[in-house]
Amino acid sequence: FFGGASPAAPASIGTFLDSQSIYDVKREQLLANMAYFENRVQNMSYFKSMKGHPAYTFQDKKLSEYLENNGFILTNFNYPEESTAIMSRIVISSHHLEHDIKLITKAINTYYPG
């Protein structure tokens, strides 16, 4: 709660504390969306993720292009160094709707059939 030598403004702390129930609801929705994504993808072995973290990484450049060509927004970057292969990432949020997740999982399952 401290930035520099001064504490946060009381109004900011009050707002943060008063909004805890919103954070709780959004966290539950995020966890539900992650579970829905993981249950709908037919083969999660193509993806790497950390339990409880809503990012799913993969290194299949053609899948990345396929998803982007079908209207999905991904992040692509060289990691851990610029000279290494491109890593792509799908990020699930609490704002995604069930329909959004159905669309991307259908595209993934079409690309990697059963």
Write up this protein:
The structure is a single chain. The chain is built from four helices and five strands, in the order E-E-H-H-E-H-E-E-H. The longest helix has 21 residues, at 20-40. It has helices at 10-18, 20-40, 61-69, 98-111, and strands at 2-3, 6-7, 55-58, 75-78, 86-91. The protein has a single domain (8-111), classed as Aspartate Aminotransferase, domain 1. 12% of the residues are buried. Strand 4 (75-78) and strand 5 form a beta hairpin. The N and C termini lie far apart (49 Å). The protein has 114 residues and is α+β, with helices and mostly antiparallel strands.
Q: Output the strand order for the largest sheet.
A: 3-5-4
Beta-strand level of the residues, as a percent range? 15-25%
Radius of gyration: 18 Å
* Global morphology: globular
CATH architecture: Alpha-Beta Complex
Overall CATH class: Alpha Beta
What is the count of distinct domains? 1
Based on helices, strands and strand pairing, what is the structural class?
Answer: alpha+beta
Count of extended strands: 5
Fraction in helix: 40-55%
The CATH homologous superfamily is named Aspartate Aminotransferase, domain 1
Low-pLDDT residue intervals, each spanning 5 or more residues: none
